[in-house]
């Protein structure tokens, strides 16, 4: 996998357990297909729905993969993202996020970035582990609300990228992780653009970077 971290890095502890797609399953084949096309270097092509495949399933597999990637990326900088360094969850001075999941925490609360990201990743993991939302068995249909759940997950995962870029890019550079972060983010952005999964307003904190990544590829 082109994105796996150099195993020697001292903080390669993952922040949440990796979500595994069962080997031998159709979703596993799709993941392998995704990894193979990524290797071609053409990310616009790599994100397209493979011929004859189910859109929900393609989005599900990629969402799990992005969760794992972001998990790893954030895991490398957790020691720099603390209550004192990041007392609010922000993406630059103009964007601040307050956490609510609609069930346990209904009214948005202001909290530190590490707390927010912990809430966020735990919430995403709970969605991914829910067989009624993300069925891993062949022939089990996706629920009618799958698309809206996937959009919410991706919208929230984007915020972790935005926080890393705005508040911790110097640490990323020091760890020599910037190429890895940029490739992962570019893949993520091309994917959400291909299927129109995140509202443009939500992408505003990284608008300039997104423009730059897109223009290089035309």
From TrEMBL:
Which GO molecular-function terms appear in the entry? kinase activity
Report keywords, A-Z.
Kinase, Metal-binding, Transferase, Zinc
Indicate which residues the UniProt annotation says bind Zn(2+).
Answer: 81, 86, 163, 168
Question: Does the keyword section mention Cell wall biogenesis/degradation?
Answer: no
Q: Where is the composition biased (Polar residues)?
A: 1-12
Q: Which Pfam families match?
A: Mob1_phocein
The keyword Metal-binding appears for this protein: yes
List the transmembrane segments: none
Q: Which InterPro entries match?
A: MOB_kinase_act_fam (IPR005301), MOB_kinase_act_sf (IPR036703)
Renumbered residue ranges of the record's region Disordered: 1-22
Which protein is depicted? MOB1A kinase
- Protein's gene: Mob1a
